[in-house]
Structure to design on (264 residues):
């Protein structure tokens, strides 16, 4: 955290998160079980909150763990949520859980991404999504949001590019609203500027937005789910997402199952 943020105190951070959640001081005070007067004093810097109060307010505001640590530091307290590299020994249970999910999802694609949409891993079937991508785009760190939208990336093979583009931008908008991360705002502006069709809406209602992809196996269609570590109390684990792609039709399922069979 910058010196400017630390010197400003926790008040402006708290006020920003409250407004981001569209809550009045009274709404937040009632929800957190504190007086509106005391909350006002904290926001204006007239009162220094305890670490417990910072965490209580941050919990009610659904502030991400990374930002809760920033709020604690701004209030003059030590951060309480640890942060490790995914390869650190402490993260072994997380890596094992990820490997189980990725391996168990074969022969269908699955990828692991972090808060910035950088790909941290994929199963073998995940290579199907990345076929034909320019080699320089695969140099780490690989940003899957850029990869899906760049002309040298997946975009030429996405048959419903306008629809998928709209889906990705909606996901980014929700993430920006949740985290307030300026880096994600820059990423959204960048990928929105890439050439491609706009989504004008389909003529028929759909259960989920599909990813329709041209591949060496023919046209494949996927729907996806996103899994997170719901009980995480460590920063890195709380920011991981595993996106698993499922066949949206029998043709896709048959093609992937057939391709995964050992050749005689």
């Amino acid at each position: 955290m910058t010196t400017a943020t630390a010197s400003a105190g926790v008040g402006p951070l708290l006020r920003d998160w409250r407004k981001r959640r569209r809550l009045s001081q009274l709404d937040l005070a009632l929800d957190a079980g504190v007086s509106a007067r005391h909350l006002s004093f904290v926001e204006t810097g007239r009162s220094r909150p305890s670490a417990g109060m910072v965490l209580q307010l941050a919990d009610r505001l659904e502030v991400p763990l990374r930002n809760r640590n920033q709020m604690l530091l701004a209030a003059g307290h030590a951060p309480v949520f640890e942060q490790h590299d995914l390869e650190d020994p402490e993260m072994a249970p997380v890596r094992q859980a990820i490997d189980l999910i990725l391996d168990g999802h074969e022969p269908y694609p699955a990828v692991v991404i972090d808060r910035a949409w950088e790909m941290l891993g994929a199963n073998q079937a995940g290579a199907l999504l990345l076929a034909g991508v320019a080699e320089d785009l695969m140099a780490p760190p690989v940003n899957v949001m850029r990869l899906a939208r760049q002309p040298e990336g997946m975009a030429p093979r996405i048959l419903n590019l306008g629809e998928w583009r709209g889906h990705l931008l909606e996901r980014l908008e929700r993430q920006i609203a949740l985290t307030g991360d300026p880096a994600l705002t820059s990423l959204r502006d960048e990928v929105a500027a890439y050439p491609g069709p706009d989504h004008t809406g389909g003529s028929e209602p759909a259960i989920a937005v599909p990813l329709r992809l041209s591949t060496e196996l023919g046209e494949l269609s996927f729907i996806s789910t996103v899994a997170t570590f719901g009980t995480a109390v460590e920063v890195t684990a709380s920011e991981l997402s595993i996106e698993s792609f499922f066949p949206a039709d029998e043709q896709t399922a048959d093609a992937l199952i057939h391709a995964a069979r050992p050749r005689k």
Summary: Residues 161-179 form the longest helix (19 residues).
